[in-house]
Design brief:
Layout (H helix, E strand, L loop, with lengths): L1 H19 L2 E4 L1 H6 L2 H38 L5 H26 L4 H28 L3 E4 L16 H8 L4
Parallel strand pairs: 1-2
Helix pairs in contact: 3-4, 3-5, 5-6
């Protein structure tokens, strides 16, 4: 009987503590789509990415062309010429891989460019969320666009529009 009363008391205490906390949701995708600077930055990144991708593809095409020429001339080449051509093809492949890594690798130019363009926008959003959170005394704010385990969220606790208005992008 004592265990049941203790369990019930613990359950009531947890429920009271949980009710004392305030939660809110934000939709980062919605917020970012309503910020013109984000759209501009995204467009710049897409243009740069396409340009760099074309450079990498051009280098890969050169390598492919060298390889096809090598294949067709293979029978007529001396062993020294074969080695020279093979080395040339390998060097082109390495150059293409290096260029791809330079532009698109984990610490590549695209990552650095994305960080330089997006970080100020993300910082502005974070500061606005923090400000709204402090004003409304929220203990937890969850991004519903990236939280895959949220099955249902009431629109009443979505503060995305408040965050946008705090940033000066009121609808």
């Amino acid at each position: 009987m004592k265990k049941i009363i203790l369990t019930f008391a613990l359950f009531v205490a947890v429920c009271v503590a949980a009710n004392a906390q305030k939660f809110a949701l934000v939709d980062m995708e919605y917020i970012m789509k309503n910020i013109p600077a984000y759209e501009t930055a995204t467009e710049q990144l897409n243009q740069v990415s396409k340009k760099w991708q074309q450079e990498v593809e051009a280098l890969n095409a050169e390598t492919e062309k060298l390889y096809k020429n090598y294949q067709t001339e293979l029978v007529f080449l001396s062993p020294d010429m074969k080695n020279k051509r093979e080395n040339e093809i390998v060097e082109k492949e390495k150059a293409a891989q290096e260029l791809k890594r330079k532009y698109f690798g984990p610490d590549g130019e695209l990552f650095k460019k994305r960080e330089s363009l997006m970080k100020p926008i993300q910082d502005e959003i974070y500061n606005a969320i923090k400000s709204v959170s402090e004003e409304k005394a929220y203990q937890l704010i969850v991004d519903k666009s990236s939280a895959m385990n949220i099955i249902y969220a009431s629109p009443k606790i979505d503060i995305s529009d408040e965050v946008l208005s705090k940033m000066g992008y009121a609808k």
